[in-house]
Amino acid sequence: MSMTDSHIACATLVEKGDPDRFLAVMAAPPAARPDLFALYAFNLEIARAPWVTKEPLLAQMRLQFWRDVLSGEGAPVHEIAPALVTLQAERGLDTALLAALIDAREIEIGTKAPFETTDALWRYLEDSAGGLLTLAVQALGGGAPADWPGLRDLGAAQGLANYLRAVPALEQAGRLPLPDGRPQAVAELARDGLNRLKRGRAGARSVPRPARPALLAAWQAGALLTQAARDPGRVAEGRLGQSEFRRRGSLLMRALIGG
User: Are 230 and 186 in contact (CB under 8 A)?
Assistant: First the structure.
């Protein structure tokens, strides 16, 4: 697929707002990039909805806008909407996963402590990051989501790594992002994430080669979760991360071995 103006708008949005996924897309074959940019730009827009306004009703309206776009009830007036609508029409993206992806963001609207239990946090990660990774595989022709149940674990583990990196910013915004922020609980959560990552990677081994670039988005999850498990203080202090050399080198390695 060629890059339309809408795809270019998607790429620009992802580059500015989600630089890690932007790098992952640029490590994918050129033919895979337009669809991934469309999906990741959509994810970025709905992820922002709870944060761009302090009015819960306005945040809910932003999410409803995207529900209407995907259902065909709303005009695709947003610059990224044409690319998303085309992707949905051509690949038949799973409507339940798309709906769950949007619904997951409602949890973050107007609440100081969105997750009372670890199970609630994992459900959120499965529906958001887990659903997104599954949709990305489907977008690249990977077949029905039911064919690859391990992708939700892989995506949720990636989502946890990203979420733990965001903890300091969430706390600064007045949120209580973790159901239990004690170091031992954070370390246990990270270990659970590593177990899910292992299961997810095992389950993703049979993903068709053309769809495997979708898996690149999870390239940092293992390193970040290992850091959090060994030294949970890094989470509260905002010290999760790799050097630029390791960050790009590990992505290159993943790209070479196929995700």
Answer: no
Alpha helices in 92-149, H assignment, sequence order: 95-106, 118-125, 131-139
Over residues 36-75, the pLDDT tens digits come to 999 999 999 999 998 888 899 999 999 999 999 999 876 6
Residue 177 is part of which domain span? 5-257
Q: What are phi and psi of 53, to 5 degrees?
A: -150, 150
The two tokens of residue 52 are 């761009």
- What is the spatial distance between Cα 100 and Cα 96, in angstroms, rounded to a whole number? 6
The count of structural domains within the chain is: 1
Beta strands in the chain (DSSP E): none
pLDDT confidence band for 20 (50 / 70 / 90): very high
Q: What is the CATH number of the domain that holds 144?
A: 1.10.600.10
- What's the CA gap between 125 and 127, in Å, rounded? 6
